[in-house]
Amino acid sequence: MIKNWTILLLTLFCLSTINAQESEEKKAISEVLNSWHKAAADANFKVYFEKMTPNGIFIGTDATENWTIDEFKAFAKPYFDRGSTWNFTAIDRNIFLDASSKNIAWFDELLNTQMELCRGSGVMKKVNGEWKIAHYVLSMAIPNENITEIVAIKKERDSIIKSGLLKH
Q1: 3-state secondary structure (DSSP) of residue 77
Q2: % helix, strand, coil for the chain, step of 5
Q3: For every residue of 13-61, which 3-state class applies, written as one string?
């Protein structure tokens, strides 16, 4: 009987330790994302891009915005230099850890922005003990009842982009 209780207590202890470690990792990831968004709002180019992996990808709201980190830096630098960047604040965030590697995580976040509500999602990678953004996708959150209007607005430009991509 004592052996069974000992096994049960050890199991519960191990599970609580695992949950605490996962909670700490999620907190660390959330802090990286918050400081990344703050660095943009503060027009701090160096800190902003240090939060991304060297081979990071940023996908923006425009269909043509699928950038390597170097392409994104070239796009963003003038905005940071002028101090007229973007200000995103997470109002909801979900973080998921890869249980097998413990070095990969993915997330989604609802953001308050100058474009109203947007959704960010991405992949985080632990590099030398620090969480970095490896892949980030920014999307506008559009109510389903407004989709027809939005499609009408973007249809012409989208067809030009599609025809160019379909030729490849």
Answers
A1: helix
A2: 50, 30, 20
A3: HHHHHHHHHHHHHHHHHHHHHHHHHHHHHCCCHHHHHHCEEEEEEEECC
pTM of the entire predicted model: 0.84
Convert 55-82 to b/e letters by CB count within 10 Å (16 or more is b).
Answer: ebbbbeeeeeeebebeebbeebeeebee
* The dihedral formed by the CA atoms of 29, 100, 23 and 116, expressed in degrees to the nearest 10: 40
pLDDT digits over 28-66, tens only? 999 999 999 999 999 999 999 999 999 999 999 999 999
Please give the domain boundaries of the chain with CATH numbers for all domains: 2-166 (3.10.450.50)
